[in-house]
Design a protein that fits this description.
The relative contact order is 0.16. This protein has a three-stranded mixed β-sheet with strand order 1-2-3. The protein contains five helices and three strands; from the N terminus they run H-E-E-H-H-E-H-H. The longest helix is centred in the N-terminal third of the chain and has 25 residues. It has a single domain, classed as GMP Synthetase, Chain A, domain 3 (2-Layer Sandwich). Helix 1 packs antiparallel against helix 3. The chain is an alpha+beta fold and 123 residues long.
Length: 123
């Protein structure tokens, strides 16, 4: 059954609120982390949900992941999704990491284009 526009809007508001909290927590804890975004196709909800955590540089991303902070970001994502009443399992399958530096290099800083390519598996 498809979700109504009202249900989609309610889910989106909850996701924005809870992921914003997760983002602010990560910015305080993880050096080089700058922002996150989420994408989903409501026709394939919740399996299509993707949360992308973005670092300033590739080096920041590599250091954070090597230090085990990727697990912390997955944990923050899981808490945010739980608070938003969005159930996916395993949460790690819905989390990706990226960097501003990689986007500038491959897509001239165009995040919309980069996310579309990552979504289709081409980048």
């Amino acid at each position: 059954m498809s979700l109504s526009k009202r249900d989609q809007a309610r889910i989106e508001r909850r996701l924005i609120a809870t992921l914003t909290e997760a983002c602010e927590t990560a910015k305080a804890e993880i050096p080089g982390f700058t922002w996150l975004t989420h994408e989903l196709d409501y026709d394939l909800f919740p399996s299509s949900l993707r949360v992308v955590w973005v670092f300033e540089t590739e080096a920041h991303q590599d250091r954070a992941l090597a230090a085990g902070q990727g697990a912390r970001m997955v944990e923050l994502t899981a808490m945010a999704l739980r608070e938003a009443d969005v159930l996916v399992s395993p949460v790690a399958d819905h989390v990706q990491f990226d960097s501003e530096e990689q986007c500038r290099r491959s897509h001239a800083g165009n995040w919309q284009q980069r996310l579309a390519r990552k979504r289709s598996g081409r980048g």
